[in-house]
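User: I'm new to structure prediction. If I give you an amino acid sequence, what do you actually give back? Let's try with this one:
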Amino acid sequence: MPSLHRLLVILASQFVLALSAHAATSWQSLSAEQRELLAPLASQWQALPEERQDRFANAASRYPQMPPEKQQRFRERIRQWAELTPEQRQRARENYERLMALPPQERERILREVRQQRHASEPDGARHRHRNHQSQEP
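Assistant: Good question. You get back a string of structure tokens that encode the predicted 3D arrangement of the chain. For your 138 residues, that looks like this:
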């Protein structure tokens, strides 16, 4: 019987470890820097699927290594995402999945068109800053 008891204890502890490894990332478990970057999502955090919490947390941890332009874009996109309704988010996810299912050349063509449309709608100063940044990239 002692060996059965020991086996049950081992199995139970493994189960608990497995559950904790897959537990959603709590807001409090994020670093102060991650919480500051992800603040627009704070009120929605616990309702986000675990996978999204992990993606946001991982992206926020890479933030310090991003160039300033990407940092600015990251902050803006987090803010925009937080402002979307659940229906708009779902539509954005579906559009992204459709885009990623396309052949690479078709996907690049569509992304180029979207960028051109976006740049055409930007104020002249924003276009100028973006052009300067592009010319500095390798």
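You can read the tokens as a compact description of the fold. Here is one thing that stands out. The chain is about 75% helix and 0% strand.
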